[in-house]
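DM from R.C. (forwarded with permission)

"hey, sorry to bug you on a friday — could you get me a structure for this? deadline for the figure draft is monday and I only need the backbone to look sensible"
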Amino acid sequence: MENLHHHHVGLAPHRCGECCTRIEKLNVTLNRQPVLEDITLHLHCGELTTLVGPNGAGKSMLLKAILGEVSHGGTIHFLPVAGHGREDAPVIGYMPQQLDFDRNSPVNVHDLFAMAASRWPVALWYSRRTRRAALESLRYVEAEPLIDRRLGQLSGGELQRVLLALSLTPMPNLLLLDEPVSGIDAAGRELFYRTVSDLRRRFDLSILMVSHDLAGVTAVSDRIVFLNRRIVCLGRPAEVVANRELRRTFGLDLGPLEASRP
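My reply, with the result:
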């Protein structure tokens, strides 16, 4: 099973709605080929920003750059509100596209949280503190009853909510979601989006989400970024889905989407 440790880059600063993760002129090159070029993007507390674009556009690579998993040019800074401490990196929560595991394994949800919280092999005994923390995070995503369920018994939607809860342990400043609704049915997608929107408002989270579900994210995002190695356009959902290059890339009649944002 992959490394599930939280990306604890710093202490969680004062949440105020004005903190900002500033990505300035970021670029990534792999095998001498440009993957991302001149990416400038500011992510504010309490805001849900969604990355859309074709396959190979660099969406997941941008998340990896923010996590420090790939080398990049340019800068990434976390700026707290003036008067609330020094510049620092945020606590980053990350939810991967999928979790690779043996579905016949006896590992349950509680085990998963214990493994993520420990830097050492997990024994058969867990502290009450670990269980309380897991239950608290699961409660945020309406998944508390799943704590003793085996991972192999979870539906796709249930597993995604568990992974979302795991990314909230402890509560981050910046939450990165990589294709979180891939393979989930319509009801599961609706529940996931509702949960993420509630978390954003409740905890003033800064959320950056990668998605191909253009119709779904148009209804819940504060901003959409159309990425194709460079930022083609960004703005409010209605503005971005009206972009001609986006229409051409997705090959869809996006007219009805423009009216779906309240």
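R.C.: lifesaver. DSSP finds nine helices and ten strands in the chain.
me: no worries. The first helix runs from residue 59 to 67.
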